[in-house]
Design a protein that fits this description.
Blueprint lengths: L37 H9 L8 H9 L19 H13 L2 H5 L1 H35 L8 H45 L14 H26 L1 H29 L9 E5 L2 E2 L11 E4 L2 E4 L1 H6 L11 H5 L2 E5 L8 H4 L42 H8 L19 H26 L12 H4 L5 H33 L18 H17 L2 H29 L13 H18 L1 H21 L8 H16 L14 E4 L11 H11 L5 E8 L2 H21 L5 E7 L2 H11 L9 E5 L11 H15 L3 E6 L14 E7 L6 H9 L8 E9 L5 H14 L5 E6 L7 H46 L15 H24 L4 H21 L4 E5 L10 H11 L6 E5 L11
Helix pairs in contact: 3-13, 5-12, 5-13, 5-17, 5-18, 6-7, 6-15, 6-16, 6-17, 6-19, 7-15, 7-16, 8-15, 12-17, 12-18, 15-16, 17-18, 17-19, 17-20, 18-19, 23-24, 27-28, 27-29, 29-30
Catalytic activity: K(+)(in) + chloride(in) = K(+)(out) + chloride(out)
Protein name: Solute carrier family 12 member 7b
Subcellular location: Cell membrane
């Protein structure tokens, strides 16, 4: 649209940079850069895509390389996965995995049906409640790729997000180890047993040989899978559907087998051979007989050879073998056989305990020392309920599979809740059915996969299906874990992980894949599926715990942005889910739970200390805000009790011309005094209006915050712009703080250059600040020679902090040294208290009383009473007072002379202006435009009068006599200074009562002179003026 052109509109060059060309909204055109039109905003939202780091586009980048090897740009494809393919089936594939195929029957056989159902109900309730919370978070806005890490970090902040995200990454990585170990166990135990490299010569060495085989084959499998992921992730995605099809066929085969057992319960391969009531491993014999008839001749069987020293009938056999007969029972007798009743209760035992059928009769043997070498079925680990919970829980940890694919979903807000909850529901139904029909003695069915015996038409359907299921799940873990680590690294919240945010040119996380493979190898070297499963259970439970916590927190805080489309959630359900997760962590393994929490805690503190600052509008900030609001409302506006009183600081800083802090040691002293406790507000004032000084105010705040960080001062910064410094500091003293959280003490530096400055504003502002703090009943601390105060890195040696307690104004003088000595800078200093006695005072009794008072105050200090005798005013004092008043009078004369010069300059300016106007405006008959304030005659008269007064004033200066009140004050300052310098000149710090300013403002300059004389000859001095209330007490 061309620019509007009209003879009635003045188009200037200033309009050339204006990007807004319309005329209907010209009223808002000046703000278009910061506030765009609604139409442009909606256009940006319509073009938004959350396909940011999915696997698919990484591989498509390889396919889009041009002839010169450069990557050509393609139009971004919208995510196309729906609920079934994108969420339901991936969740189902991860839930119905290695634990279901390899360990569920053993768990049921050990724990019994009732306790197995309890395990299933607990774990499934945990995942269902977590899925509800996750659904609420996932439907509260667009969820980019990143899944659970994105949801937790944006809900609970970068610290929790990074800690839980890394725990989830470790859980996913160890899950890859578990799936690879499951793959190798299926391969070596059920598919190709002869492929074992390490073979056991003795029965007791079988477990170690199996572990070594798992390590070798597992490492090879991990290497192969990592290469596949590195070279072609798109093939992993294509194979995922094939693996998923195998899982579904396996499940259907199991259902078919369960139905068949109800009608044909007797399968030849299902027999279990018992010797007495002990279950036998029937790997090395075909017939469950001691002897058999062959051509009317009784011969021994292979079973005989396992228990006897020769195949002869008169051979010496194991005692238990001789006393008991062998029997055959059905391994899977069918639903109508009473198997459910027999498997109701559990049978736990230690490692090496023989598996026995309690319903069979047997004759015990006297010698049981050889039982471990016999082919009995025995526990390979010590079993107990909590162990089984930890081993089983990984079978229900697939609920995040859908949310982890959020970047590839067509409608994540719709698909994630429906697909995840439906997958959990149907998998739970199937698992409960399996629990109800699984046999107890499954390890003795000729080395077959126990759950495979249920399958129809062949056990190989389950064996092959479980093998491919474990392979697919392992590849998915090795695909997802590096991308999760890459997302955390690219967020920049963990500095040392930033290298893992890089990868190949197409975005593939090469370095993250390398680290994932290394961590996965640790799980492979553990080699035991039962040992790895509880480890990843801890990390997944930690993740689920914080998903529930995030949902509960957002719900209770009722933040305006919390508007999930999924409505079937409640904060109570989320808290129940979080509590259940925490309980399961300690039920499964209390020491693993503590280790996982320690790892998460260390990561949290590291991110808090060294991580990049991120503001994601998380719930923790909202929680802090609500907690602060609640605390401020509860905090009474009245002053706290004396026992709880501590200095809440308002630190008034002066800035230089570059808006940098003039006295950074004042911040150091505040840090040493506060030690991070209580309130600290650092304030400063810039002259001018906020409209013209906005940029300078922000720069000053940044400089002050930087200095606070350097000096380790914890607190708040507030810079105001005011027409003059006096009003600005007054506003800070009156308004700093909020509610009951207000300052009660003002700390400032002594204006050291007040004598050299011709402008009296600096010391007048200082005195007015003293008056205002007194009127506001606030304590005042003034640091003299503050640049010589120690820094936070200094360590003062043996020395003293001297307190000169002249007048009592609440006990702040004695409290401050105690607080300072809590800091390591002043820790070695001793405290000395000096008080002044007059002629009428009993100094000995005063010392005893003061020592008793300090004893009740629980303060360790040396006490000394200094006697100040009445003496005549010395000539030195008299002359010093006279010089002070003469200087004051001369300054007034100089001020009058300056006023005279200003008036003369104004007269010259008026003359020049009048003559210039007369030349240019001769024809102008209107009124004069220049109004002369001073005529020549008037000016000469006034100057002569002022000169006469000045001459008279100069004569008066040399003839004047000092004011008696000033002489007495100067006498006090001189005498007290002599005593303080004599006693405390070598002290590290001197604390002294600060006398108040005169009520008559005409004596303000004299007041500054008195203080200067009082502090003369002292290095570090802190003037203390109490706020008019007791701040220290002898009572507990």
């Amino acid at each position: 649209m061309p620019k509007e052109s009209s003879p009635f509109i003045n188009n200037t060059d200033n309009d050339k940079g204006n990007l807004y060309d319309g005329k209907n909204m010209a009223l808002f055109e000046e703000e278009m850069d910061s506030n765009p039109m609604v139409s442009s905003l909606l256009n940006k939202l319509a073009n938004y895509t959350n396909l940011t780091q999915g696997v698919k586009e990484h591989e498509e980048a390889d396919d889009d390389e041009g002839p010169d090897g450069l990557v050509s740009r393609r139009a971004a494809k919208n995510p196309a996965l729906g609920t079934l393919i994108g969420v339901y089936l991936p969740c189902l594939q991860n839930i119905l995995g290695v634990i279901l195929f390899l360990r569920l029957t053993w768990i049921v056989g050990t724990a019994g049906i009732m306790e197995s159902l309890a395990i299933v109900v607990m774990t499934c309730s945990c995942t269902m409640l977590t899925a509800i919370s996750m659904s609420a978070i996932a439907t509260n806005g667009v969820v980019p790729a990143g899944g659970s890490y994105y949801m937790i970090s944006r809900s609970l902040g970068p610290e929790f997000g990074g800690a839980v995200g890394l725990c989830f990454y470790l859980g996913t990585t160890f899950a890859g180890s578990m799936y690879i170990l499951g793959t190798i166990e299926i391969l070596l135990t059920y598919i190709v047993p002869s492929a074992a490299i390490f073979k056991a010569e003795k029965k007791e060495d079988e477990a170690e040989a199996l572990l070594n085989n798992m390590r070798v084959y597992g490492t090879c499998c991990l290497t192969l899978m990592s290469l596949v992921v590195f070279v072609g992730v798109k093939y992993v995605n294509k194979l995922a559907l094939v693996f998923l099809a195998c899982v579904i066929l396996s499940i259907l085969a199991i259902y078919a087998g369960v139905i068949k057992t109800a009608f044909e319960p007797f399968f030849v391969c299902q027999i279990i051979c018992l010797l007495g009531n002990r279950t036998l491993q029937n790997h090395n014999f075909d017939q469950c007989l001691k002897t058999m008839e062959v051509d009317n001749v009784t011969v021994t069987t292979k079973l005989w050879s396992l228990f006897c020293d020769s195949p002869d009938l008169n051979a010496t056999c194991n005692e238990y073998f001789t006393l008991n007969n062998v029997t055959v029972i059905q391994g899977i007798p069918g639903l109508t056989s009473g198997v459910i009743r027999d498997n109701i209760w559990g049978d736990y035992g230690p490692n090496g305990m023989l598996v026995e059928n309690k319903h069979q009769a047997s004759e015990p043997a006297a010698d049981t020392s050889q039982d471990i070498y016999m082919p009995y079925v025995a526990n390979d680990i010590t079993t107990f309920f909590t162990l089984l919970v930890g081993i089983y829980f990984p079978s229900v940890t697939g609920i995040m599979a859908g949310s982890n694919r959020s970047g590839d979903l067509r409608d994540a807000q719709k698909s994630i809740p429906i697909g995840t909850i439906m997958a959990i529901y149907f998998s739970n139904e199937y698992i409960c059915l399996c629990v109800s029909v699984c046999p107890r003695f499954g390890d003795s069915v000729k080395g077959n996969l126990v759950i495979g015996i249920l399958a129809w038409p062949s056990p190989w359907v389950i064996v092959i299906g479980s093998f491919f299921s474990c392979c697919g799940a392992g590849l998915q873990s090795l695909t997802g874990a590096p991308r999760l680590l890459q997302a955390i690294a690219r967020d920049g919240i963990v500095p040392f992980l930033q290298v893992f945010g890089h990868g190949k040119a197409n975005g593939e996380p090469t370095w993250a894949l390398l680290l994932t493979g290394g961590i996965c190898e640790i799980g492979i070297l553990i080699a035991s599926l039962d040992a790895v499963a509880p480890i990843l259970s801890m990390f997944f439970l930690m993740c689920y715990l914080f998903v529930n916590l995030a949902c509960a927190l957002q719900t209770l805080l009722r933040t305006p942005n919390w508007r999930p489309r999924f409505k079937f959630y409640h904060w109570a359900l989320s808290f129940l889910g979080a509590s259940l997760c925490l309980s399961l962590m300690f039920i499964s393994s209390w020491y693993y739970a503590l280790v996982a929490m320690l790892i998460a805690g260390c990561i949290y503190k590291y991110i808090e200390y060294r991580g990049a600052e991120k503001e994601w509008g998380d719930g923790i900030n909202g929680l802090s805000l609500n907690a602060a609001r609640y605390a401020l409302i509860r905090l009474e506006e009245a002053p706290p009790h004396t026992k709880n009183w501590r200095p809440q600081m308002l630190l008034l800083l002066n800035l230089d011309s570059d808006h940098a802090v003039k006295h950074p040691r004042l911040l150091s002293f505040c840090t040493q005094l506060k030690a991070g406790k209580g309130l600290t507000i650092v304030g400063s004032v810039l002259e001018g209006t906020y409209m013209t000084k906005e940029a300078e105010v922000k720069k000053a705040e940044q400089n002050i915050k930087s200095s606070m960080t350097t000096e380790r001062t914890k607190g708040f910064c507030h810079v105001v712009a005011s027409s003059n410094l006096r009003d600005g500091f007054s506003h800070l003293i009156q308004t700093a703080g909020l509610g009951g959280m207000k300052h009660n003490t003002v700390l400032m530096a002594w204006p050291g250059t007040w004598k050299q400055s011709n402008d009296p504003v600096s010391w007048k502002n200082f005195i007015e600040t003293v008056r205002e703090t007194t009127a506001a009943h606030q304590a005042l601390l003034v640091a003299k020679n503050v640049d010589s105060f120690p820094t936070n890195t200094d360590r003062l040696g043996q020395g003293t902090i001297d307190v000169w307690w002249v007048v009592h104004d609440g006990g702040l003088l004695m409290l401050l040294p105690f607080l300072l000595r809590q800091h390591k800078v002043w820790r070695k200093c001793k405290m000395r208290i000096f008080t002044v006695a007059n002629m009428d005072d009993n100094s000995i009794q005063m010392k005893k009383d003061l020592q008793m008072f300090l004893y009740h105050l629980r303060l360790d200090a040396e006490v000394e009473v200094v006697e100040m005798h009445d003496s005549d005013i010395s000539a030195f004092t008299y002359e010093k007072t006279l010089v002070m008043e003469q200087r004051s009078q001369m300054l007034k004369q100089m001020q009058l002379s300056r006023t005279e010069r200003e008036r003369e300059a104004q007269l010259i300016h008026d003359r020049n202006t009048a003559s210039h106007a007369a030349l240019n405006d001769k024809a102008d008959a209107g009124p004069d435009r220049v109004h002369m304030t001073w005529t020549k005659d008037k000016f000469l008269t006034e100057r002569n009068r002022n000169r006469a007064e000045a001459n008279m004033g100069v004569r008066d200066i040399f003839n004047m006599k000092p004011n008696q009140s000033n002489v007495r004050r100067m006498h006090t300052a001189v005498k007290l200074n002599e005593v303080v310098v004599n006693k405390s000149q070598g002290a590290h710090l001197v604390l002294l009562n600060m006398p108040g300013p005169p009520k008559n403002r005409g004596g303000d300059e004299n007041y500054m002179e008195f203080l200067e004389v009082l502090l003369e000859g002292l290095n570090r001095v802190l003037l203390v003026r109490g706020g008019g209330r007791e701040v220290i007490t002898i009572y507990s």
